[in-house]
Design a protein that fits this description.
Length: 347
C-alpha cells in the first residue's frame, strides 16, 4: 500500500512531475510521462533476486499453513480457522500484490494500465486491513480462551468464527475498493489540474490529509493499540493464574491455550514492527513537506510486506504441530489414507 498524502499542488508537482537528473521518463514519446530512475544491471538483478525470494517464501510458507490447517482435522479449531484466513490474506498478497510491486520498485514505472493500478492499490489496502482485523479478532479469541476457559468452548465455535471471517473480508473489501474506486482519497482536490495529479507510467495511491489520517487510524493505529492492551491483559491474567495452586496443576489443554496466546502475540508484535515505520512515515512526511525520497517509500512498503513472509516462519519455530505437518507434507505422506487423522499434538 504505497501511499503519498497530498497537501498542496506544488508538492504534488515536485513529487510526480518533472524529469530525473538523468532525463529518463517511463514513456519517452508521451507527454506528461512520469520520471524514471534507471539502475545498473547489477543492481537490478540483485533487487529482483531479493524481492523474488521474499515473494516466493511468502507464497510457499503461507500455502503450507493453508494446507496444514485445511487437511489435518485436529487443527480444525476456531483459532486455527482465523489463522487459516490470515494465511490466505498473506498468500494473496504474495500472489497478487508483490509481483507487480516488484516490477514497479525495480523499473520505477508502472506498465500495467490505470485500471489494474487501481485494482492493485485497492487489493493492497484490502489485504492490509484484512490482516489487522484478523489479528484483532485472534487477540480477542485468545483473551476469551485464557481468561474465560470454562465458557470459551461453549461460546466460541466454528459458526461464530465463520461469521467473523466473513465480516473481516467484507469490511476490508468495502474499505479498500470503496476508498479508491469512489474517489474518496482525492475528494476536495477536484480543482487541481489533472496533469498535476497524474502522470503516465505511475501508480502511487494519493491520499488527501483527511483520508490519509482515517486510513492510518482504521488500518493500523486503533487496532494495533487495542491488540496491545488485550495481550497485556492476557499475560497479566495468565501470570496471576500461574501463581495459584490450581493453575500449577492445569491441564495440557490450558497450557496449550496459554502458549498459543504467547505465540500469536509474537505474530502481532512482528506485524507492528513491520508496519510501524511505513505508517509513521505516512504521518511524518507531510510535516516535512513531503521531502522523503520515493525510494524510502518503496523500502518501507517492502519491509511491511515482509510481515507476510515471516508469519509462517514464526509458526514453524514455535508450533510443534506445524513442524510435524510440514514434515508430512514435504515427504508426501499427506497422500496416504487417513493422513488427515494424524495426531499432531496430545489432547
Amino acid at each position: 500500500m504505497f501511499v503519498i498524502c497530498v497537501q498542496s499542488q506544488q508538492e504534488v508537482v515536485k513529487r510526480y512531475i518533472g524529469i530525473t537528473k538523468d532525463g529518463y521518463t517511463c514513456y519517452a514519446s508521451i507527454e506528461n510521462s512520469c520520471p524514471k530512475q534507471v539502475y545498473s544491471i547489477t543492481a537490478r538483478v540483485l533487487i529482483y533476486m531479493t524481492l523474488w525470494t521474499i515473494t516466493t517464501f511468502t507464497l510457499c510458507g503461507n500455502l503450507l499453513v493453508i494446507i496444514s490447517i485445511s487437511h489435518f482435522k485436529q487443527l480444525h479449531t476456531p483459532t486455527n480457522f482465523l489463522t487459516l484466513s490470515l494465511a490466505v490474506a498473506d498468500f494473496l498478497l504474495g500472489g497478487l500484490v508483490m509481483p507487480p510491486s516488484m516490477i514497479r520498485s525495480v523499473e520505477t514505472c508502472w506498465y500495467f494500465g490505470d485500471f489494474f493500478c487501481k485494482f492493485h492499490s485497492s487489493t493492497d489496502m484490502m489485504l492490509c486491513t484484512t490482516s489487522i482485523l484478523h489479528l484483532s479478532f485472534i487477540s480477542v479469541d485468545r483473551y476469551c480462551a485464557v481468561c474465560y476457559p470454562l465458557v470459551y468452548h461453549t461460546k466460541i465455535g466454528v459458526s461464530l468464527i465463520g461469521k467473523t471471517v466473513l465480516i473481516c473480508w467484507s469490511l476490508s473489501a468495502m474499505f479498500g475498493f470503496g476508498v479508491i474506486f469512489l474517489g474518496l482519497n482525492i475528494r476536495g482536490m477536484e480543482n487541481f489540474d489533472s496533469q498535476v495529479l497524474y502522470c503516465v507510467g505511475g501508480c502511487t495511491l494519493i491520499l488527501n490529509q483527511t483520508s490519509g489520517l482515517v486510513c492510518s487510524l482504521i488500518s493500523f493505529y486503533i487496532p494495533g493499540f487495542i491488540m496491545i492492551v488485550i495481550y497485556v491483559k492476557i499475560f497479566a491474567v495468565a501470570r496471576k493464574q500461574a501463581q495459584t495452586i490450581e493453575d500449577k496443576k492445569k491441564s495440557t489443554s490450558r497450557k496449550r491455550e496459554t502458549k498459543a496466546a504467547k505465540t500469536l502475540s509474537i505474530v502481532v508484535g512482528v506485524f507492528l514492527i513491520c508496519w510501524s515505520p511505513y505508517f509513521f512515515c505516512s504521518i511524518l512526511d507531510p510535516i516535512f513537506n513531503f521531502s522523503a525520497p520515493a525510494l524510502i517509500g518503496e523500502i518501507l512498503i517492502w519491509f511491511a510486506y515482509l510481515n507476510s513472509t515471516l508469519n509462517p516462519l514464526i509458526y514453524a519455530f514455535f508450533y510443534t504441530w506445524f513442524r510435524k505437518a510440514l514434515k508430512i507434507i514435504v515427504f508426501g505422506e499427506i497422500f496416504k489414507n487417513n493422513s488427515s487423522l494424524t495426531q499432531l499434538y496430545s489432547e
